[in-house]
Write a structure and sequence with these properties.
The protein has helices at 20-29, 32-36, 82-115, 124-146, 161-176, and strands at 2-7, 44-49. The protein is mainly alpha-helical. The protein has a domain at 82-171. It has a two-stranded antiparallel sheet. Helix 3 (82-115) packs antiparallel against helix 4 (124-146). The chain crosses the membrane at residues 92-110, 122-143. This is Protein PAM68, chloroplastic. Residues 52-77 are annotated as: Disordered.
């Protein structure tokens, strides 16, 4: 893919503003000025080549991907079991989706209250509720993964507070080691 294209043709310039009639009459009496406005392929010049994301076959300069972890030694981390992964996805969807839906419903409710002249809601209330609900939705990704029991045989509690504290300390212990 071509990248960083630059236009190398000068466009007509006037120091004073012109009306449409003046521009129309100029273009009718000077048809050569129309050719200066064309965007033909000759008027574009490449300044760089696109690098892309993957290496092409036969490219010696492409970086080689290694299977070894850099900076951690030779040990490989165990993959997440499918049972734990499914449990984690359910928790993430719930902890992101519930605050997000509550935030959208509250915004619509405030809009209906204001449109029907039932209640004059101050402008700061939708801002605060949006900040709190959407912010907690963003934090739900981290909480959903930390509150999941990482043991395939153990289901864990409904809210996952015990698992969150256990996984938080375990995560920091692994990072320090």
């Amino acid at each position: 893919m071509n990248a960083l294209l630059a236009f190398h043709q000068k466009l007509p310039y006037t120091s004073t503003p012109c009306s449409r009639d003046q521009i129309r009459s100029h273009l009718l009496h000077h048809p050569a000025s129309l050719s200066t406005l064309s965007l033909s392929s000759n008027s574009w010049k490449l300044h760089a080549q696109a690098k892309g994301f993957g290496a092409k076959e036969g490219n010696e300069n492409a970086p080689k991907l290694s299977t070894k972890k850099q900076g951690r030694g030779e040990e490989d981390e165990d993959p997440i079991p499918q049972v734990v992964f499914d449990r984690m996805i359910r928790r993430i969807v719930a902890s992101v989706g519930v605050p997000l839906v509550v935030g959208v419903v509250l915004l619509k409710l405030f809009d209906l209250l204001k449109e029907n002249h039932v209640l004059q809601v101050p402008l700061w209330i939708p801002f605060i509720t949006t900040f709190v609900t959407f912010g907690s939705s963003v934090l739900g990704v981290a909480y959903g993964s930390l509150s999941t029991s990482w043991d395939p045989e153990e289901e864990g509690s409904f809210l996952g507070l015990e698992q969150a504290t256990q996984n938080w300390t375990e995560m920091w212990q692994e990072d320090e080691a």
